Amino acid sequence: MQVRQYVIRRLLVLPLIMIGVSIIVFALTRFSGSPIGIYQHSEMSQEQVAELAARYHLDDPVPVQYVYWLKGALSGDLGWSGVSVAPVLDVIPVKLTATLELAIAAGLVAVLLGIALGTIAGARKDRLPDHAVRLFAISGASLPVFWFGLLLLIPLYVSWGLFPLGRSDPALFDEIVHVTGMYTVDSLLNLNLAAFVDALWHLALPAITLGYATTAIIARMMRSSMVDEVREDYVDAARAKGLSERLVIRRHARRNALVPTVTVIGLSFGFLLQGTVVVELIFRWPGLGQWVTSAILAGDQATVMAYVLITSLVFLLVNLLVDVAYAYLDRRVVLGA
Amino acid sequence: MLPAPRPSRLESARVRTRRARELTRETLRNPLTLGGLIIVAAFLLMAACAPLLTAANMPDAYQMPRDWQAIDAPPGTPGHPLGTTSTGGDVRYGIIWGSRMSLQLSLLVVGIAVVVGVTVGSLAAFVGGKVDEILMRTVDVFLAIPELIFALAIAAVLGTSFTNIILALAAVFWVKYARIIRGQIIHVKQNEYVDAARVIGDSKLSIYRRDVLPNSVTPVVVQATLDMGTVVLIGASLSFIGLAESGLAEWGVLVSEGQAGVISGKWWVSTFAGLAIFLWALAFNLLGDGLRDVFDPRSERR
Description:
The complex is a heterodimer. Chain A is mostly helical. Helices cover about 75% and strands about 0% of the residues of chain A. Chain A has helices at about 5-30, 45-55, 60-75, 90-125, 130-140, 145-160, 185-190, 195-230, 235-240, 245-285, 290-300, 300-330, and strands at about 80, 85. Chain A has a two-stranded antiparallel ribbon. In chain A, helix 7 (about 185-190) packs across helix 8 and helix 10 runs parallel beside helix 11 (about 290-300). By secondary structure, chain B is mainly alpha-helical. Chain B has twelve helices and no strands. Chain B has helices at about 10-30, 30-50, 50-55, 90-125, 130-145, 145-160, 160-190, 190-200, 205-210, 220-240, 250-265, 270-295. Chains A and B meet through helix 1, helix 5, helix 6, helix 8 and helix 10 of A and helix 5, helix 6, helix 10, helix 11 and helix 12 of B.
C-alpha cells in the first residue's frame, strides 16, 4: 500500500477510535453520578436545582446525555471546568502547551541519549559499557517517577538551591509575548536571552525526571537491535572493505538498528504523557497533569473527560507519525498488513 | 501405516516437568535473573512474616500505627530505625506491611487481567470473523488511552480507596493480554499438529485446551512477570496522587505523606518507601527479562 493511502486510512479510523474513547470515558464519568454538584451552590432551592438539571439535560438517560455532549463537543463546547472556573476549551491550550513543552524536552533528551547509549552498548556486547547501560536501562524502567523526582529535589533544590520549582520567574516573563505557549520558544522569539535561560533552568529537572524512564526504554531496544545487526553479514562486508570500525557502526549497523527502535519511541510517548501527571505535581509545573489531578479530587467531570480525550488524541497522532516515519526508514515494511 | 499413538497423559506430564526443570536451570544461570528472584523471595518472606517483624497495629493492621511522642523522628531513633512520618507513623512498619499491600495489588490485578485477557483473546482468535473484529476494535479503543491515565480516570470515578485502585488497574491491564494471546493463537493454529488433532476428530475445545493454549502461553507468562512490577509502580503513582486512603500502610501513600516534609529537609519517609517500590519493580523486571531470554528462541543469549 502507498504511504499516502495508508495515512489517509489511518486518519479516517482516528475519529472512530476517538468516539470509542469518548463513549468509554463518558460512561465512566456518569457512572460516578451526576456532575451537577459543580454547577449548583448551597443556596439553590429544589426547583432551581431541577431547572439546572433540565437546562444541562442531566435529567435525561445517559445515552441521550452523551448525544448532547457529543453535539456540544463537535461545536467546540467541552463544558465548564470547575477547578479552573472557565470553559474547558479555553483552559486546554494553556495547559496543553505547558505539558507538551515538558514532554517534548524529555522526549528529545530520551531519544538522543537512548540511541547513543544503546549504540555503545550493542557494539560492545558483554563488555563493561554494555553492563553499565543495561543496569542504567533496567533501573530506569523500575524507578517510580515521583520518587526519582523527589531524589533529585532533595539535594538540588532543598539542600543547595541550585534549581527552582515552577515554570518560570514571573518578573522575567512579564513582557514576553506568548506566541506558542512554550516558554523556551517564546523567549527566543522575543529575543530575550535572560528569559530563555530562566525557562531552560526551570525545565531541566522535570524534563530529566520524566525522560529517564523513556531513555531507558529506548536504550534497551536500541541495544538489542544493535546486537542483532552487528552479527549480520553486511557488517563483516563493510569491515572487509576496510572501513574503520567507527564508520561501520555509524553508517551501517546503527542506521539499520534504528528501524525497530523507532516504533518503541512512538509507544514510549504514551509513557511520557502519563509520567507528566506525577512530575507536574512534584515540580509544580502548571500543565495538564496538575489540572487533572485537582479536577479528579474535586469531582470535576468535564475536565477529566477533556483531559483523557486530549491525551489519547496526542498519543494516537504521535503513533501515526511514528508509523509513517517507520515506513520511510524501512522500505520493506508493508503498511496495513 | 498407523499413526504413532498419542502420548499418554502421564508421559506428557513427565516430558513437561523435565522441560520445566531444564528451563529453570537455564533461567537461573543468569546472575541478574537470580538476583531478581532473590529480591522477590525476600519480599515474599517479608510479607509472610510481617506480624513477626513488627507487631500488628490493632484493630486494623493495614493502618499506620501512630506514635504521638515521636513525630518526624529521623532514622535511628530508638523504636523507629527508619524514622517516622509527620503524624508519627513508623516508616519501617509501613514498608513491612506495605509489602502485603503490594503483593495483594499485583497478584489480583495481574490475575484478573490474565484471565480476562486470555479469555477475550482466545475467543477472538478461535471464533474469528465478526466476533474477532468487534473484540479487537474494542481493544484498539482501550489501547488508545495511556495506562496510568485510564486507570486514573477509573479510580477517580470509583472513589478514593485502595480496592478501587486494584479494580481500575485490572480494567486497564487485561487489554495487553488479549492482544498477545490472540496473536499467539493465530500463529500456533497454523502448526501441523493442530491439523493432525483436527483430522483425528478432536473437538474444537479439546484442541484449544490440549494443543493450542499450552503452546501459546509463554509470552503471557513473561508479560505477567514484568507486569507484577509495573502494576505496583502505577498503583503507587495512583496512591501518590491521592487516590488511596490516607494513613494506609502502603508504599505510594508513604511517599506521598513524606513529600511535604522533603521540602523542609525530612527526606527519610519518601526515600525509604520509594526504595521499596523501586526494588520490587526492579526484581520483577530482572526476572521477566531473564524469562524472556530463555523462552524466546530468537533471543540473543542463544
